[in-house]
Amino acid sequence: VQLQASGGGLVQAGGSLRLSCAASGLSFSRYTMGWFRQAPGKEREFVAAIRRSGGSTSYTEPVKGRFTISRDNIKNTVYLQMSSLKPEDTAIYYCAASQRDILSTVRNPTTYDYWGQGTQVTVSS
Q: Is the pLDDT of residue 103 over 80?
């Protein structure tokens, strides 16, 4: 199984980025997909998740209204559209796949079975 995250970079505050995570080696449509992030010196934290069919999503409060998670089950890819970026969004962003299809568990990183390598997002003030 491989989860290949891409799309990170350096952007000014207020700007936008779209992260992509291409999955291979798994039945993508059977997995809940999530995005997590880890800033220097901090623990990995939940950002957003989307259930198998794409019909249900969940976001951490600080990104609600600014970030949108989506998925394409034909392309086996999950996206994170990030807008109105703030310096506090600076982190390494990881995508992850979980066989659990329960929205109440998606914030817990231990419920994910596979992880990508991460992509750096840096927001300058």
A: no
